[in-house]
Amino acid sequence: MTDILNRLALIVAARADAPPSESHTAALLAKGRAKVAEKVGEEAIETVIAAVQDDRQAIIGESADLLFHLSVLWHDAGLTPDNIDAELARREGLSGLAEKAARKS
Ligand SMILES: N=c1c2ncn([C@@H]3O[C@H](COP(=O)(O)OP(=O)(O)OP(=O)(O)O)[C@@H](O)[C@H]3O)c2ncn1[C@@H]1O[C@H](COP(=O)(O)O)[C@@H](O)[C@H]1O
Questions:
Q1: What domains appear along the chain, each with residue ranges and CATH number?
Q2: How far apart are CA 12 and CA 57, in angstroms?
Q3: pLDDT for 72-86, tens place per residue?
Q4: Fewer beta carbons within 10 angstroms: which end of the chain, N or C?
Q5: Atom 27 of ligand 1 has which residue's CA nearest to it?
Q6: What is its EC number (predicted)?
């Protein structure tokens, strides 16, 4: 998964300056952060709907759409998959329940 996210980050960076008429990535970035964020939300909701409908193929397709649009958002925010990787690695071994308890104390 990390491999494909790294490749996707390179693709997004390479397509960012393409003419918007030739690239979905460039067209989306040209619309600005709010639109990119809106698309992430839209794809997340579509993933939720697919999950509730128990549609395995749709979950896969919508998850791929979500990860692509998240990659565009990371690019727009000056982030790379390495940044997310580091945060997930930091959390490794820490129970979600223990983390929540530490936040509340
Ligand atoms: N992985 C993707 C990818 N996943 C989904 N999408 C597009 O994201 C859109 C999501 O569907 P929507 O119905 O929400 O989009 P839409 O109909 O354009 O709706 P609006 O944006 O108008 O709201 C579709 O147009 C998909 O084709 C993607 N577009 C590009 N990529 C990757 O980015 C590369 C470069 O693409 P371009 O930037 O288009 O050259 C591709 O080769 C792929 O590797």
A1: 2-104 (1.10.287.1080)
A2: 25
A3: 999 999 999 999 999
A4: C
A5: 24
A6: 3.6.1.31
Q: Residue 7: which region, alpha, beta or left (left: phi > 0; alpha: psi -120 to 50)? A: alpha
For residue 25, the CA-to-ligand 1 centroid distance in Å is 7
Query: Half-sphere exposure of 76 toward its Cβ, with a 13 Å CA cutoff?
Result: 20
- Does pTM surpass 0.80? yes
DSSP one-letter code for 97: H
Ligand 1, atom 20, lies closest to the CA of 39
Per-residue confidence (pLDDT) for residue 96, from 0 to 100: 79
CA of 13 to the centre of ligand 1 (A): 14
Helix (H, G, I), strand (E, B) or coil at 74: helix
Closest Cα partner for 33 from 63, 78, 64? 78
ipTM, two decimals? 0.91
Tell me the residue type at 104. Answer: K
Closest protein CA for atom 6 of ligand 1: 65
